[in-house]
Amino acid sequence: MASHFPLPASRYSSFIKSEAKRLGFLSCGISKAGFLEEDAPRLEKWLKQNQHGKMDYMADYFDKRLDPTLLVDGAKSVISLLLNYYPSQLQNDDSYKISKYAYGKDYHNVIRKKVIKLLKSIKREIGEVDGRAFVDFAPVMEKSWAAKSGLGWIGKNGNLITKQVGSFYFVAELIVDLDLEYDYATTDHCGSCTACIDACPTQAIVAPYVVDGSKCISYFTIELKENIPAEMKGKLDDWMFGCDVCQDVCPWNKFSKPHSDPLFSPYPELLSYTKKEWEEITEETFAKVFTNSPLKRPQLEGLKRTMLFLKE
């Protein structure tokens, strides 16, 4: 466990940020690990109102979700990292829609490897620092930590938004037992804009800054294992996997720039497939073409279920 290092915390923080940039991260911010006091009542209310739907895992590890010191022994700092996924090309117009984050390889493995490389660099430069990398699956309030460390603000659509680059990026954390120099939260720049609320096809943004996950298109097309509720007929806007509507209409995303990571390069078939080709794809072709794709999560069976629902 890290205890005493000879250089000031500011030097270590500067090194970590420059190393994160070298590894291809869009930006890096650092917060003091501790209990997320403001998030606790919001999360509790969200769960009590069943806005997590069938995502039972969201109710697990409530205390750990709010306090990384319960998740990682000796945790002192939360290093938040952003990785751009905005594509340079979009899908064919005559296609079932797929969220842009799923155009290339599964991001979990891509980002995790980068975060682990960052931890190795920290150990090499600073000493025996203990830490754990977190990418999406663990009970960590990723967007809250990123906002706390100044990387953006959580918008009315529930996404982390940054003035310079919008919101088309992944968020990951590295929690370490090292005292560092900490960043400050930025201000909210949503203003009076309600573009995301007005555009949501299923009215999932039930109030500014409150997203009912059980009404979100991403929930119906990825998370929900049961049949999509009949009342959603005609409301899914041809989305087969995920949904980008609230991000596409956000004015700050006019500043999004295409990523340069080859691992996130779109599968050519994903961009070119028509609705007919998606409907006719076989298990064999799907397994062969979409190796290591996020589309493997609902599996072809789940995608076909959604296609059928969209056609009916």
UniProtKB/TrEMBL annotation:
<comment type="function">
    <text>Catalyzes the conversion of epoxyqueuosine (oQ) to queuosine (Q), which is a hypermodified base found in the wobble positions of tRNA(Asp), tRNA(Asn), tRNA(His) and tRNA(Tyr).</text>
</comment>
<comment type="similarity">
    <text>Belongs to the QueG family.</text>
</comment>
<dbReference type="Pfam" id="PF13484">
    <property type="entry name" value="Fer4_16"/>
</dbReference>
<keyword id="KW-0846">Cobalamin</keyword>
<feature type="binding site">
    <location>
        <position position="250"/>
    </location>
    <ligand>
        <name>[4Fe-4S] cluster 1</name>
    </ligand>
</feature>
<dbReference type="InterPro" id="IPR013542">
    <property type="entry name" value="QueG_DUF1730"/>
</dbReference>
<keyword id="KW-0963">Cytoplasm</keyword>
<feature type="binding site">
    <location>
        <position position="157"/>
    </location>
    <ligand>
        <name>cob(II)alamin</name>
    </ligand>
</feature>
<dbReference type="InterPro" id="IPR004453">
    <property type="entry name" value="QueG"/>
</dbReference>
<keyword id="KW-0411">Iron-sulfur</keyword>
<keyword id="KW-0004">4Fe-4S</keyword>
<feature type="binding site">
    <location>
        <begin position="243"/>
        <end position="244"/>
    </location>
    <ligand>
        <name>cob(II)alamin</name>
    </ligand>
</feature>
<protein>
    <recommendedName>
        <fullName>Epoxyqueuosine reductase</fullName>
        <ecNumber>1.17.99.6</ecNumber>
    </recommendedName>
</protein>
<feature type="binding site">
    <location>
        <position position="216"/>
    </location>
    <ligand>
        <name>[4Fe-4S] cluster 2</name>
    </ligand>
</feature>
<feature type="binding site">
    <location>
        <position position="193"/>
    </location>
    <ligand>
        <name>[4Fe-4S] cluster 1</name>
    </ligand>
</feature>
<feature type="binding site">
    <location>
        <position position="190"/>
    </location>
    <ligand>
        <name>[4Fe-4S] cluster 1</name>
    </ligand>
</feature>
<keyword id="KW-0408">Iron</keyword>
<keyword id="KW-0671">Queuosine biosynthesis</keyword>
<dbReference type="InterPro" id="IPR017896">
    <property type="entry name" value="4Fe4S_Fe-S-bd"/>
</dbReference>
<dbReference type="InterPro" id="IPR017900">
    <property type="entry name" value="4Fe4S_Fe_S_CS"/>
</dbReference>
<feature type="binding site">
    <location>
        <position position="160"/>
    </location>
    <ligand>
        <name>cob(II)alamin</name>
    </ligand>
</feature>
<dbReference type="GO" id="GO:0016787">
    <property type="term" value="F:hydrolase activity"/>
</dbReference>
<feature type="binding site">
    <location>
        <position position="196"/>
    </location>
    <ligand>
        <name>[4Fe-4S] cluster 1</name>
    </ligand>
</feature>
<feature type="binding site">
    <location>
        <position position="225"/>
    </location>
    <ligand>
        <name>tRNA</name>
    </ligand>
</feature>
<keyword id="KW-0378">Hydrolase</keyword>
<feature type="binding site">
    <location>
        <position position="218"/>
    </location>
    <ligand>
        <name>cob(II)alamin</name>
    </ligand>
</feature>
<keyword id="KW-0560">Oxidoreductase</keyword>
<keyword id="KW-0479">Metal-binding</keyword>
<feature type="binding site">
    <location>
        <position position="65"/>
    </location>
    <ligand>
        <name>cob(II)alamin</name>
    </ligand>
</feature>
<feature type="binding site">
    <location>
        <position position="246"/>
    </location>
    <ligand>
        <name>[4Fe-4S] cluster 2</name>
    </ligand>
</feature>
<comment type="pathway">
    <text>tRNA modification; tRNA-queuosine biosynthesis.</text>
</comment>
<feature type="binding site">
    <location>
        <position position="243"/>
    </location>
    <ligand>
        <name>[4Fe-4S] cluster 2</name>
    </ligand>
</feature>
<feature type="domain" description="4Fe-4S ferredoxin-type">
    <location>
        <begin position="181"/>
        <end position="210"/>
    </location>
</feature>
<keyword id="KW-0170">Cobalt</keyword>
<dbReference type="GO" id="GO:0052693">
    <property type="term" value="F:epoxyqueuosine reductase activity"/>
</dbReference>
<feature type="binding site">
    <location>
        <position position="200"/>
    </location>
    <ligand>
        <name>[4Fe-4S] cluster 2</name>
    </ligand>
</feature>
<dbReference type="Pfam" id="PF08331">
    <property type="entry name" value="QueG_DUF1730"/>
</dbReference>
<comment type="subunit">
    <text>Monomer.</text>
</comment>
<keyword id="KW-0819">tRNA processing</keyword>
<feature type="binding site">
    <location>
        <position position="136"/>
    </location>
    <ligand>
        <name>cob(II)alamin</name>
    </ligand>
</feature>
<feature type="active site" description="Proton donor">
    <location>
        <position position="136"/>
    </location>
</feature>
